[in-house]
Structure formats: structure tokens, C-alpha cells
Amino acid sequence: MLVHAIPANINYEFAADVRAGLTREHQKELPSKYLYDDVGSALFEVISHLPEYGLTRADERLLRRHSREIVDRVKGPVAVAELGSGSGRKTRWLLEAFCRRQRTSYYPVEISHSALVMCERELSDIDAISIVGFEREYLEGLLEVAAYRKSGEHLLVLFLGSTIGNFDRMAGLKFLSGVRRILKPGDSLLLGTDLEKSSSELIRAYDDELGVTAAFNLNLLARINRELAADFDLAQFKHVARINDEARSVEMHLRSKRPQKVHIRAAQVVVEFGQDETIWTESSHKYSLDDVCEMARTAGFRCEVQWMDEQWPFAENLLVAV
Ligand code: AVI
Q1: 166 touches ligand 1 (CB under 6 Å)
Q2: Which of 45, 147, 153, 189 has the greatest CB tally within 10 Å of its CB?
Q3: pLDDT, tens digit (0-9, with 9 covering 90-100), for 125-155
Q4: What's the 201 CA to ligand 1 centre distance in angstroms?
Q5: How far is 314 from 295, CA to CA, in rounded Å?
Q6: CA dist 132 to 67, 100, 119, 278, Å?
């Protein structure tokens, strides 16, 4: 195993979160946002092409098919803010449709610098677009975007790809309420949500045959090794996808194959694992169409339209701030 030296530029927030999550008394856990370093983001991109994982393609199909209608429903000059833009690939259809109508400002909000750069590169060839990226957490970035908007401009916020599903339900509602507080009545939110499907489909999607999702999950331990000078032996952990019926979610865990001790030097902690003990790394909640409308109403939105994909249960929900 390659033993990593303590890096000169330790990310102290990451170190603190890893220490807190792995020293919890009952279920050990790590925040899913740390799955997305450069390697994790590249692996997620591969996941989105896997035949077992239809979510991203469903999202793209809906945006492509309904972009004209979405644009027709969002009146007047529009500024588009996207929370977690990623590479920006699936937003192209929508932005092209807006820009055919009039000059449009696009504000991607991303914590990943490389994703922002990629997104600006991917979309800058669209005629009549102006792009200003914000390297920020979602709500912090959206607040800045709102301050940028010109008078009379509508704000359309995109939160696509069912990223909301990676929050637990209460946190999802809190997040939508936070978005609503930044918007003015009449502004819109286009929310992508993965819908409920059978347990067998979910297990296939989150534990694919090729092992890409397993690599995506295990990369979190590799990242801790790289960035926090830890000595996780990746061969001694197994990726597990598990259905949580009560939460209506699919969870990813990393299961320790044997009792073992791991040293995480930059977090100044030694963590003991029992045989079969797991680290919970992600939950992906699934929704019904009614769930989404109910959550939207509680957060201060009206559910204007829901478009559903025919091949993979997924919905694009256009919500209007009331
Ligand atoms: C980004 N997010 C919506 C994905 C999901 O399906 O929850 C992340 C993912 N995890 C495993 N596969 C994909």
C-alpha cells in the first residue's frame, strides 16, 4: 500500500468531518459531498452512462424534450442560476432555447473549481449568453446571484439531477425553503427528482455489474488516504447498496471485511472497525409526484407542471414562488 505523507495544505474542514463521522458511537458515516473530488466526479460521469443507471439520461431527455415549453412558461427577461452545474452539458438545451428568445445571463454555482471551468468552456459558444460562475456553496452562491439580477429580470433556479435526493427529507425541505427565501414571488425553480422504483432496479443502479459505483464509493477512502495521510486498505472494504424502506431511499455503505484499525494522521485519529461494520456514505431518496408537490407547497412554491420520463421514472418539476 502507498503510504501518503501529511500534505502541506490540509483541508481542515474535511479532516474535522472525517474525524467526527468515523468516531460516532453507532453508525459511522461520511458526508456524501466528499465523494466528489476530481476522481469521484469523473467516476460519477461514467456512472451516468451505465445502462443500469438511467437517472441522468432521463433528466437530459426531459430537458431536451421540454425546453421550449419551459422557456414559454418562464416569461420576460430571465437570469438562470444553476445549483451544482457540473459540466453544464444537460443545461445546454434550456440555455439555447432561452438565448433564442433574448440575451440571457447564466450563473452556475459550484463548489468544484474544475467543474465550473468545464461548464464555462462547454457553454460559452451559445449565442447571446453571458456566463458568470460562482465558486460557492449553493445557497451562498444563490444569494450573490440574486444581488446581481437586473431590475425586472425573472430568476429561474435549476436544481437538476435529483441532487435533492441526497439530502434527507427534512433537510431537502429546509433547503427548498432556503431557496424560496432568496427568490421573489413569480420566480421559478426547476427541480429534478428521481421517482420511486422497485428495489431490484435500485440495487442494480447503485451496485452496477462493472463495479463503477463501487469504485466511486471506495474512492472516498482513497481520497482520505491521499488528502489526510490515512492508511485505509481498500481491499479490506466492500461497497454495499442497501434499501431503506422506511426512508424510501437507497443507501451506499462501505463494509469492513474484518476487524481492523485505520490511522488518519492529518485528522489525528485512529479508527477501529469491527468485522462487517459499515460506513454510511450516501442516501438517495426517491419521491412520488405528490411528495414533490407537497414538499414544494410547504416550502412556499406552487407546483406548476411535472414532466415525467417514459423510460425511467424521473420528473422535472417546475415550481413557482408564491
Ligand atoms: C448525484 N446523485 C443524485 C446521485 C444519486 O443517484 O443519488 C449520486 C450517485 N450515487 C451513486 N450513484 C449515483
Answers
A1: yes
A2: 189
A3: 999 999 999 999 999 999 999 998 888 899 9
A4: 14
A5: 16
A6: 22, 19, 11, 41
Contact 195, 58 (CB under 8 A): no
Which residue is listed with cell 422557456? 71
Residues of the chain where predicted confidence (pLDDT) is lower than 70: 1-3
DSSP labels for 40-62?
HHHHHHHHTT-TT--HHHHHHHH
For residue 185, give the 3-state DSSP assignment.
Answer: coil
Q: Is 317 in the pocket of ligand 1 (CB under 6 A)?
A: no
Residue nearest to atom 10 of ligand 1 (CA): 206
Kindly report each contact of residues 171-174 with a partner whose C-beta sits within 8 Å and lies 24 or more positions away, as own/partner. 172/285, 172/295, 173/295, 173/298, 173/299
Contact between 113 and 135 under an 8 Å Cβ cutoff? The reply is yes
How confident is the model at residue 163, as a pLDDT?
A: 97
Q: What's the pTM value of the predicted model, to 2 decimals? A: 0.94
Q: Would you state the pLDDT for residue 2?
A: 64
One-letter amino acid identity for 218? L
Say if ligand 1 is within 6 A of residue 309 CB: no
Amino acid in the structure at residue 14: F
Q: Using CB atoms within 10 Å of the CB of residue 117, give its burial: 0 to 12 exposed, 13 to 18 middle, 19+ buried.
A: middle
Cell of residue 102, nine digits: 433574448
Decide: 219 in ligand 1 pocket, CB within 6 A.
Answer: no
Which is nearest to 267 in space by CA: 27, 20, 30? 20
Ligand 1 pocket: which of 33, 46, 47 to mutate (most atoms within 8 A of CB): 47
106, β-bridge pairs: 80, 131
Q: What is the pLDDT of residue 283?
A: 98
What is the pLDDT, as a whole number, of residue 1?
62
Does 221 contact ligand 1 (Cβ within 6 A)? no
**CA neighbor of 284 nearest in space, from 226, 228, 201, 180:** 201
